[in-house]
Write a structure and sequence with these properties.
204 residues; Rossmann fold; 2 domains; 5 strands
Length: 204
């Protein structure tokens, strides 16, 4: 008996898959036959949930996806998935519309949808970059902030100079990683002068 296998995906861990689950359920997909990917982009082909869904479908079954951009957001990826479905005799349902990738007309529409999905993804990236550029020009986007304030960095350098604190101690006191401790110490005033003196002493 032919089955409906559902697949849903969201790009970030902060997004919710509930709406997509509801769509798949309304289309007749059983809850235990829905496979999910969370925090993975459509352009990332390494999607465990999608692999599980493709492994679950058999010849005569239908793979159900809310929208094509949930399945793939690049034309080559969409075509690759479509070719896989054709070879295995599996139909594709996009939001309730059935597409048989083996049918020339359905294949044409499928490819057109894939082009539009990729175009929308590229537009979103472009708008995001433009928005970040505008925010940065207005001083609203300042990039990564330092893990320690200037005062904290000075205190870390002072504590290290006493010789009473190890790197591990400083990591624990300031709740930072080893690399950050070394970075602060390397940037400390007079650090370069000390390095030069050390190198001269070594030469002597």
């Amino acid at each position: 008996m032919a089955e409906l296998i559902g697949y849903a995906r969201c790009s970030t861990v902060l997004q919710d898959l509930a709406a997509q689950r509801e769509i798949l359920t309304s289309l007749g997909v059983a809850g235990d036959r829905i496979y999910l990917d969370k925090g993975l982009t459509g352009t990332n082909r390494a999607r465990p949930g999608l692999d599980q869904a493709l492994a679950a479908v058999r010849a005569g079954d239908t793979l159900v996806v809310p929208k094509l951009d949930r399945l793939a957001r690049s034309v080559p990826d969409a075509r690759d998935i479509g070719d896989t479905l054709v070879a295995r005799g599996i139909r594709l349902s996009l939001g309730g519309s059935i597409y048989d990738p083996a049918d020339p007309m359905s294949k044409m529409f499928f490819n057109m949808l894939a082009v539009f999905a990729e175009f929308e993804a590229d537009l979103l990236k472009m708008r995001t970059r433009e928005g970040m550029a505008i925010a940065r020009s207005r001083g609203k986007l300042k990039g990564r902030q330092p893990k320690l304030t200037t005062r904290q960095q000075a205190e870390l350098v002072r504590m290290h100079a006493t010789g009473e604190y190890t790197i591990a101690d400083l990591m624990e006191v300031f709740s930072i990683g080893r690399a950050t401790v070394y970075r602060v110490l390397d940037r400390a005033p007079g650090r370069l002068d000390r390095k030069l003196e050390d190198s001269k002493t070594g030469e002597a």
